[in-house]
Amino acid sequence: MPVPFTTDDTERLRETLQEIVTDGATPGGVLVTGTTDGDQHVVTAGTIATECGPQPPTAHTLYDIASLTKVVATWPLIGQAVQEGLIDLDGPVRDILPVMTGETPSGEATVRQLLAHTSGLRASTRLDHYRGTELPLHEAMCREPLENSTGAHRYINRGYILLGLALAHVHRRPLDRLAARTWGTFGMTATTYGPVTRTPQVAPTEQRFPGAPRIWGTAHDDNAVLLGGVAGHAGVFSTPSDLATYARVLLTGEENGVLGDWLRSSTVPQAAIEPGLDRGLSWILAHGGTVAYHHGFTGTSLYLAPPTGRYLVICTNAVYYGPARTRLAPLRALALKTISST
């Protein structure tokens, strides 16, 4: 039986969200807590942003979810492709990319290693550095030497960029169309790759230069922008409501279905991050693998607790005021503690 969140749980989350808004960590935000049996609570605070007027954000406000793209777009598509026999989880990524010539040391990284951030690829990713090369992007990236030995955990975006290119190649279809089809089957009607139209229901993100307009409706991530807004590591926009729907699909599938098998195999530790935290396939694992979660740089998070049927969604545009990680730390710490309690 799912374990519902208590009134005290919800109230503590509400107070902490309001505190970080009051302290200037984010213009506002939305939290959704829920379980697989349909119990759900939505908590909001603040406003979407100055540009959007005085109205508060809602469960239907559209946020740039940044690196949640990894678990909302790339991870489920890889799982489906593995199940269909299109991708070998332990095969080198070069085998599922367009044909390359010569030595490709980074192309020898396996799909599993790329998902788990244990590939040893270069951590720094600047796609603008590839301008002017005669090689296709995937080949230029794969020809680079490894920066570290394989097996150790190091968070690397370029692995997911390669996975996004590989998915498009093996399906002979653009990544955004593949993802849209999958989201449609999940009932995630608002989730999309950008750019999206600037409206008062779309949360702006960062102002890069004084006096310049804020990023609003286009991906905050520079590398995603250089890929037309569609990438395996970033570029997706979603709502708190859609992310809650996705969480329920994953947790319900955990009981029955191929997606549940993929979630179970993905919550097996692949590498240690730090004491108490491991990396599974894409997901960060806590409390002995009973909680899986991921963050987005812009101020988003998604938490799953399969044994208790619980999920928790955080959507903010905290990057509106600069780097979000430190500013959101109290809320994210409470979210992890809350979803872990029974």
TrEMBL record:
PANTHER family the record matches: BETA-LACTAMASE-RELATED, BETA-LACTAMASE-RELATED DOMAIN-CONTAINING PROTEIN
Name the record gives this protein: Serine hydrolase domain-containing protein
Enzyme Commission code: 3.-.-.-
Keyword field: Hydrolase
Enzyme class, first EC level, given as a word: hydrolase
Domain of life assignment: Bacteria
Classification via InterPro entries: Beta-lactam-related, Beta-lactam/transpept-like, Diverse_Enzym_Activities
Taxonomy of the source species: Bacteria, Bacillati, Actinomycetota, Actinomycetes, Kitasatosporales
GO molecular function terms attached to this record: hydrolase activity
Organism expressing this protein natively: Streptomyces gamaensis
Record domain Beta-lactamase-related: where: 14-336
